[in-house]
Amino acid sequence: MTAVFTILKRIFWALMMLAVAFYIAVAGLLMVWKTQPINNSMFMVAHRLGGGDVTQTWVEYDNIAKSAKQAAIVSEDSRFVSHHGFDMDGIEAAMKKNESAGTVAAGGSTITQQLAKNLFLTSHRSYVRKGLEASITVMIEGMWDKKRILTAYLNVAEFGNGIYGIEEAAKYYFNKPASKLNRDESALLISMLTNPKYYEKNMSNKRLRNKQRIIMRRMHQAVLP
């Protein structure tokens, strides 16, 4: 019994040390990325490990079309500028929608939560990942301002197979820089974020185009940081 307890104690402390090391690494990267371009993420690493190529070019906030920033906010996180990483009203609404549907039909994740996942975690769903996502979200909100969070989100989001960031997406789909995107183009690109690899090959999909129209109608409501 004593031997088993000793082993469990060692495992516990090993896990604690790993957790501490992980959060130190996250904090260090967030400090660097607060002012420096972000040209990598866990999603990009996973894509490369799977044998794929990644294209991504960092652009600053002022070099992203206003319409793209508006589209991201109205589509992904309408209360972005007013919450501190978690939209409690959105979470409650998502829970009610899921209960009504009998499945996970809505997530309620904010832009900051999605950024935390994209930068440091994977798409695998588990309570452990959600816990890590929540803690990293708090760190991001505490260390970065909203403008930096939105800039990073648009620069690391996936817009197709190996296509990361709004700049590469604008070039790939419309042969122009992100600064020159118009309202239609911005709404379409942001509409793709729910299933970018599928929509890359199905740009005329009815659900995609319907979401594009909804985003365009709401775009004027966006409050930018």
TrEMBL record:
It comes from the Bacteria. InterPro entries: Glyco_trans_51 (IPR001264), Lysozyme-like_dom_sf (IPR023346), PBP_transglycosylase (IPR036950), Pep_trsgly (IPR011812). One of its GO terms (biological process) is cell wall organization. Pathway: Cell wall biogenesis; peptidoglycan biosynthesis. The chain crosses the membrane at residues 12-33. Its EC number is 2.4.99.28. One of its GO terms (cellular component) is peptidoglycan-based cell wall. Residues 53-220 form the Glycosyl transferase family domain. Signal peptide: none annotated. It is a single-pass membrane protein. It is found in: Cell inner membrane. Keywords: Cell inner membrane, Cell membrane, Cell shape, Cell wall biogenesis/degradation, Glycosyltransferase, Membrane, Peptidoglycan synthesis, Transferase, Transmembrane, Transmembrane helix. The keyword Translocase does not apply. GO terms for molecular function: pentosyltransferase activity; peptidoglycan glycosyltransferase activity. It is an enzyme of class 2 (transferase). It catalyses: [GlcNAc-(1->4)-Mur2Ac(oyl-L-Ala-gamma-D-Glu-L-Lys-D-Ala-D-Ala)](n)-di-trans,octa-cis-undecaprenyl diphosphate + beta-D-GlcNAc-(1->4)-Mur2Ac(oyl-L-Ala-gamma-D-Glu-L-Lys-D-Ala-D-Ala)-di-trans,octa-cis-undecaprenyl diphosphate = [GlcNAc-(1->4)-Mur2Ac(oyl-L-Ala-gamma-D-Glu-L-Lys-D-Ala-D-Ala)](n+1)-di-trans,octa-cis-undecaprenyl diphosphate + di-trans,octa-cis-undecaprenyl diphosphate + H(+). Pfam families: Transgly. Belongs to the glycosyltransferase 51 family. Peptidoglycan polymerase that catalyzes glycan chain elongation from lipid-linked precursors. HAMAP family: PGT_MtgA. This is Biosynthetic peptidoglycan transglycosylase.
